[in-house]
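Hello Y.,

Per our agreement to keep a running log of every chain we model this quarter, I'm adding this entry. I've kept the format consistent with earlier entries: sequence first, then predicted structure.
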Amino acid sequence: MRGITRRWLINTFGVILVILFVLVIAFAFVIQHSYYSSISQILNGRSSELVNIFNEKEDFIQTARVYVENFPDKELMELMVINEQGQVVITSTGFAPDNSQEMPDYKNAIEKGEDFADWHGRLSSGENVMALTRVIRDDKGHPVGAIRYVVSLEEADRKIFISISFVCMLGLVILFFIFLSSTYFLRSIVRPVREISTTAKRIAQGDFDARLTKLYDDEIGDLCDTINYMAGELGTADKLKNDFISSVSHELRTPLTAIKGWAETMQLDGFRDLKTVQKGIGIIIKETERLNGIVEEVLDFSRIQQDRMVLIMDRIDILAELDESIYMQRERANAENKHIVYEEPEMLPPVIGDRNRLRQVFINIIDNALKYSGDGGVVNVSIEQQDQTIVIVIADNGCGIPKEHLPKIKQKFYKANQTVRGSGIGLAVADEIIKLHKGTLDIDSIENVGTTVTIRIPILPPKTEEQEGTEKEK
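Predicted structure for the entry above:
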């Protein structure tokens, strides 16, 4: 056994075993003390009646003989009459007295000057006994003899042994049922954990369809749900990755095909037709820029994933960057019979930002708006100040985004519409760039109505008089 089972046997079952062992020892001590105390009380009770039986004027031996002959509990205990010299002269058993046997209780009673003393031990024969001696004194306080009561503890020990054995058997039964219930409990943990381990290995090897069966509504069940959720998310991520690779491959193939085609055309034409050459060179330059844009987008995404995106922050005029972005997209909009509506405000406060990265975000959002708008589509762009924030709104009347896709639209590799060109990382990159500017990028969309992208960027706080004075000193 190893793992959880072994640890449980050592930590839990071992502790239970020790506790039961201690309880059995404690019970044995209590039951023995109870039996022996009871016997001791009986002996004390019997010996206390001697005060009323022996008279100082009567002969001790004669009175003791009568007492022994009339003693009612001869079958339960043995009576011994001890004379003044410390020798046993009469016994209730009828056998000749054995004076070779030591009597510690009698010795203690005489030496300590007390009326009685008891003793518990084994005789020379090995029998376990309890003895009590009560000394009889004359009117001057001198001992004239003693009566000794001796009880065999063999029967008491047998009953004690039976009681302890019963408790031990009960403890073993308890241990057995604890072991059975714990084994069932451990199996309910170990088996699911093994299945989780096996399924996790399958998932690690790329089988994202592997799922666990939830058997218990507890922490193990929650873990199964988490593993299943993880597998689903990994499967989705893997699909998005594959779609991304396919999409990027297609995006790269299109300009490469155009470049190769026009290069071959110009080569075959021998550069005799200047008009054809100029057109081909223009297309090659355009497609090369497009390739460069795709590569830069992928590199930007890689930098963001590795937290290596570096922004060159400066005080910039955000109106100028938005205006230039719109200007760069207006020619394309006219060529596709689409319209960009934009009314530039007179003045807005400056912001702290990276002009190239912000322009990249604006171009990406406007490009998406044009891309998903149909023939004659309109893209409305507005910018204004709201409190301490610059708000840019880019809205189109295109196909919109289905409700179920909207929460994931800013995730990496995610594309709600697979029929439209694009890598699926443009919005993810744009969102991260805006976050690095301590701003927000929000998307609202209604399917077949249009999409609205709202960008908020904090303005540059006004300088205090102290800051202005410091700059003048510099």
